[in-house]
Input
Amino acid sequence: FNKDIADTDCVNCGQCAAVCPTGAITIKNDQSEVWKALYDPNKRVVVQIAPAVRVAIGEEFGFEPGENTLGKTVAALRRLGFDYVFDTSVGADLTIMEEAAELVEKLESGDRSMPLFTSCCPGWVRYAETKHPELMPYISTCKSPMQMLGAVLKTYYAPMDKKEHKETVSVAIMPCTAKKDEAARQALAKDAVPDVDLVLTVREFAKLLKGKGIDLRKLEGRDFDTPFMSKGSGAAVIFGKTAGVAEAAARTVYYVLTGKNVNSIQFKTSEHPHVEQELTIDLGEGKSPLRIGVVHGLVNADYIADEVLSGKSPFDFIEVMSCPGGCINGGGTPREAGDYHLFNLERTKVLTTIDEKHSLRQSHNNPMVKELYKEYLGEPNSHLAHELLHTEYQDRKSGKKLRAEDIWKEITLC
Ligand code: SF4
Output
């Protein structure tokens, strides 16, 4: 009692606010800050759109559930006055490059006693920090796609800002309320400059458009207007649904280990009561197969955390998403009273179809990502990539900050 919500065990996923029948719980809204930035001539305002947004926002404007309105969303953002519109999917491709490199390094080290957990869901990260800080060394140090893209954009525009005496403000349109807390994490600010300044949920963004009289139904779709960091792969688009991150990572890990590109990898329904789907990849003679598990909902994650800590988990890599179904069901997405599960199924189906029809199915084949490594970052997991694209976590029980590499140092010294 009498605590700020930030000092409680709340993971900020927003599921309670999304279904609160009395509207007693409200989410911090950054709309006025976004307006201030858009009207300030000294600000360059850039915006990114998460994969799940394209299949969720249409419902606010009377489109069929799950309809892909990405082009119209880009048009609406340009009409609002954003200077440049980017696709968070490119950040998702970067996340896969870094996370796959971490997983391959772990496999090659021969230590398979503990799995590697995904880190792109801030609700899950916060939960682990609060309830199971012992797991922190096993959570990927990769920033989420939103933060990776934010970091790249701030770095890219910094010299121009200096020359033009401007400041770049980075906005993100997300299905997620926890992304607001993530953007504010100190560990995700470089020299006190945050990767992402302001986050609007899909519902807040729809309100902003309606307040300006912009109706998505009346807009012609537009493509992203900059070739820089604006097109993600199909693997990146499925980040918006449960098992999407795991499948995207599996496509790239498979390529790194075998040299073969695969367009999709079939996960099977798991018999484990708390794992939704799983995949086993044969790594060749004499090697144990790679086992990947997919978990959604924090009740399930709690069981899995206990299983991992007791040394009984069979998995090498575990995707965890706080929201059941993944980001398509994020706390910031539109909710049709009563029936939103059907809407979620449609959103999931459309993301799957976008991936299936995409001409580029693997993160490691994204030309923009390749170019970024060639011209700037070097290779995945390089020193510079770590500086820009990785983060640290905070043990919220003891208040200690831990980086994965520090933990390894401690273990080695023991
Ligand atoms: Fe946010 Fe997605 Fe995690 Fe839900 S599953 S808390 S929407 S990142």
